[in-house]
Specification:
Blueprint (H helix, E strand, L loop, with lengths): L1 H10 L12 H31 L13 H6 L3 H31 L6 H9 L6 H11 L12 H8 L14 H25 L4 H9 L4 H12 L1 H16 L3 H6 L9 H10 L4 H32 L1
Helix pairs in contact: 2-14, 4-8, 4-11, 5-8, 8-11, 9-10, 11-14, 13-14
């Protein structure tokens, strides 16, 4: 039957079936791709370009002022403090979330209470930043020394003989107090991701290192850390991007007062309170520029890993 059909095709009496769709199948993928590109252009590319343009104009966007808005940000004391606070967040909060997540993941790996510890640390991820801010405001609640301390932290430190502290007002503590809230929320995420990466290390490698007499620290430093390095990089870049645009915790707990303001909150205040579109746009551009290198390095790392496979 097949030979007969082939003979008929060769003789021209039987034509092979035509492809379904014809010309329509050629442009259909471009239609869907074009819609996606159009949506990205409307909701991402255009707002970004418009923000960059507005950063070179005056507060009401009526006149071109060049780099004046950027100059103001890098010369005004209060705005420099905002940038410094973001740097402080970037360094300390990133180290604490990734470091504590990795530490807990290693310590509870393959122990009886592993699932219980992971569940307890991951629970804060289910709470919104606003909800977490409200909870921790009660933790940091302050009352004078001669009154009953309703705040959990001040109640504890006064019970062991110390004076109560205004944790959210005192500039010595308030930024670190806010960072603790962020660390409380995100450490569980870092721990779970890093723990999953630890599970991928073959047991034979660890056992061979123990037989050779390697200590626990040596095993971690020489074997565990290098093998999960790609995951550590991914978790770290995720934390950096989140911290660069931190907003909710600071807004709910201090409103940016008492020297706790950050770039995202300052942008919000400049735009919706001060109606200074020029400075607000310049702050947004600075935030965008700060995030770009992190994303670029992450993309390069992913491509390098794919090339090695």
């Amino acid at each position: 039957m097949t030979q007969t059909a082939n003979t008929q095709v060769q003789q021209g009496t039987l034509h092979p079936p035509k492809r379904q769709g014809g010309r329509h199948s050629a442009w259909r993928p471009w239609l869907w791709l074009g819609l996606g590109i159009l949506l990205m252009a409307i909701f991402q590319v255009y707002p970004m370009l418009n923000t960059i343009v507005l950063s070179f104009y005056s507060d009401d966007s009526s006149s071109f002022v060049g780099l004046k808005n950027y100059g103001l940000i890098f010369t005004n004391h209060s705005l420099l403090l905002v940038l410094w606070n973001n740097v402080l967040w970037l360094v300390i909060a990133t180290i604490l979330t990734v470091g504590l997540g990795l530490l807990v993941a290693v310590l509870v790996d393959k122990v009886r209470v592993e699932s219980l510890v992971k569940a307890a640390l991951f629970v804060p991820m289910a709470i919104s930043f606003v909800g977490a801010g409200v909870i921790w405001r009660f933790v940091y609640l302050y009352a004078p020394a001669n009154r009953t301390q309703a705040g959990l932290l001040n109640a504890f430190i006064t019970s062991i003989g110390f004076q109560p502290q205004a944790w959210l007002i005192d500039a010595r503590f308030n930024n670190f107090a806010l960072m603790i809230v962020y660390v409380w929320i995100w450490t569980g995420f870092c721990m779970v991701v890093l723990s999953a990466s630890l599970k991928g290390i073959p047991d034979e490698i660890i056992e061979a290192a123990k037989i050779d007499g390697a200590s626990g620290f040596t095993i971690f430093w020489r074997i565990t850390a290098p093998m999960i390095q790609p995951t550590i990089v991914v978790v770290t870049t995720t934390m950096i991007i989140n911290i660069l645009k931190i907003f909710d915790v600071v807004y709910v707990m201090t409103g940016g007062d008492y020297n706790t303001n950050v770039v995202a909150l300052q942008y919000y205040q400049e735009l919706f309170t001060n109606y200074n579109y020029g400075v607000a746009s310049a702050l947004a551009v600075i935030l965008l520029i700060a995030i770009f290198p992190v994303m670029y390095l992450n993309v390069r790392r992913i491509r390098a890993e794919e090339a090695q496979r």
